[in-house]
Phage integrase SAM-like domain-containing protein (Rufibacter roseus), 431 residues
Amino acid sequence: MEIKFYPKIEKEPDGSIKTNAKGMVSLQMVIHHNGERKKIGTGESVFLHLWDKEEERVDRKHHPDAAKINAKLNKLIVWAEEGEGKVRARDGYATVSQIAEYIKQQSKPWKYKEQAQGKQELKRDLESLYEHWKEVNKDYLTAESLRKYHQVVNQMTTHKPKVTIDDIDEAFMRKYAAALAKQKLKSGTVQKHYQFVKEMRALAGLPSKEKWLVHKTQYSPQLDLTADEFIKLINAWLPTEGLSRERDMWVLQAFLGLRPGDFAKVKPHHRKSVKIADHGEVQVMEIDQGKTMNPVQIPLPPLAVRIWDKYEGNFILPTQQERGRYIKKVATAAGLNRMYVRRDLIGGKVKETFIPVDKAISPYTARHTAASLVYEGSGGDDSLAGWLLGHAQHGIKGTTGVYAKDKAARVLPKILAAWEAILGDRVKWPG
C-alpha cells in the first residue's frame, strides 16, 4: 500500500486557483493498494507556496499550525495501515474503499456514532431530519449557515406541508424551482436550496450527487474602476488609520492583480529583484501558480514598492466582510459616486439595478480593475492583462530557463509601462 498527499487544485472561471477565504487549498490523500486507487479528503487546508512536494508535508518553520497539520497526516497513514490490517484479518483482503471507510470512521467518530444508532430510528420528515442534522453537526455550523438552512426548511414545508426527504425527487425539485423563480430569488440564493437538499439526502442515506441536484449559479459582470476613479482612491485623504490601511491594501492588491484569497497569501519573501536587459533591476512579486507550481512574476510599479516598503511586506488583513465595509467607506471619501449597473439573474430573468460605485465596490473589484487598466494603458494588449491575472502561466507551462526568462523580460517592462501610462504624474498618495 502506498499513501500520497496532494494539494487539491481547482480553477476559477478566470483560470486562477480556487482557494478558501484564507487563501488556502484543501489537501487530499490518495491510497494506492493492489492496483486500486482512491482519493479522500484530509480535512486540512494548506498554503500552496508552503507545501513541500518532496516530503509531502507543510513547511515546519513558516506554515501556520504546521505541527498540527503534519501530525494529522502521520495519523492518517497510521489509520490507513490499521484499517488495511483489520479488514484483511477479517475478510482475507482489503479494498481501497474499505480502507478509506475505516479512515473516515476514525477521523469523524461523532458522525459514525450517530449512524450506529440505526437509520430506522431517523425520522424522514424534513423538519425532524433538519433538527437531527443540526445536532450531529452542532460543533461545525455557523449562525449564518443555520439561518439560511432554516429559511430553506420553512420554504419547503410551505411549498409542501409535512414533506419528507423521500418526497424530494427530480419532479419535486422541478416544481419547487419554478416556485422559487416566481419569488424572484437571486440565482445564488436558489443554490442554497439545492445544497440543503444534498445535505439532507446524504444524511438520510440517499444518493446526493445526481445531475438534477446541480444548480449552476450565474453572476453578473464585475465592477471595475476607471483610471480617474483609481487615482482618486489613491489620492484620497482618509480620516482613520484603518481606512488608510485598507486603501493601501486594495491598491497593492490591484497592482498585483490578485483575488482577495491569493493576496492573503503574499509574504515578504515573495518580493524579489530581477535584472532585465535595457531596464536594469525590476522589483517583482513571485508566486507559484498552477499544477506545475511554475513561478509567475508580477512587476511592482513605484507606488506598489512604496506601499510594500511601508508595511515591510507584512499584510495583516481583516475578514473579507470587514474589508468590504472598509473599502466602501474609502470609496465614499474619495467621491466615487458614478452609477454602476449591476445585473442579477433573478427568477431566470436578468434584473438591472443602478447603484453608486462606493456601494458596489469590494475587495474583488481590485483584480478586475487591474485587468481593465493594464489593458487600457497598453493600448489593448490583452496578453498583458492575462499575464497579470495568472492566465499567461499556460504559455510557459512545463518550460524553464531561457524561454521563460525571455518571456518575462519582454512582458514585465510592458506591464510597468501600462501602469505608467495610466498613473502618469497624477499620483499624490498620502503615504
